[in-house]
Design a protein that fits this description.
This protein is mainly α and about 45 residues long. It contains 1 helix and no strands. The termini are far apart.
């Protein structure tokens, strides 16, 4: 019983961690794209 709970907890932790990383990388990509557009508009 204890090991099933531990496995379930680890699975949920990995799932939420992966979702958080995905959102973070998506935000970084948008920030870099925005910065690139501003640089292009300057020149």
């Amino acid at each position: 019983m204890k090991s099933k709970f531990l496995v379930l907890f680890v699975c949920f932790a990995v799932l939420f961690g992966a979702a958080a990383c995905s959102n973070t990388f998506d935000g970084v990509g948008r920030d870099m794209e925005s910065a690139g557009q501003k640089i292009q508009n300057t020149f």
